[in-house]
TrEMBL record:
It holds the Pfam family PDCD2_C. Residues 2-72 form the Programmed cell death protein 2 C-terminal domain. It comes from the Eukaryota. One of its GO terms (cellular component) is nucleus. This is Programmed cell death protein 2 C-terminal domain-containing protein. InterPro entries: PDCD2_C.
Length: 78
């Protein structure tokens, strides 16, 4: 399960794998510290959560498109 940076939004429905139709599961997350390592000022995110096919099915021996959910930092009334 991802370590979210905000309470919401969180994905309520992870779509099944486009290739085998099976369920996906949370695989890894990318934290915003990467932005400072990349010295990137035009992008921003809180957490990027990546969900991949539970069966790791193979599709034509090439890269596969998986499901990514981006959560931004929760901004309250500042
Ligand atoms: Zn699959």
């Amino acid at each position: 399960m991802p370590l979210w940076i905000a309470r919401e939004p969180v994905p309520d429905n992870i779509p099944n794998c486009d290739y085998c139709g099976g369920p996906r599961r949370f695989e890894f997350q990318i934290m915003p510290q990467l932005l400072s390592i990349l010295k990137e000022n035009d992008l921003d995110w809180g957490v990027i959560a990546v969900y991949t096919c539970l069966d790791s099915c193979v599709a034509d021996n090439s890269y596969k498109e998986e499901f990514v959910f981006k959560q931004d930092v929760e901004l309250k009334n500042i």
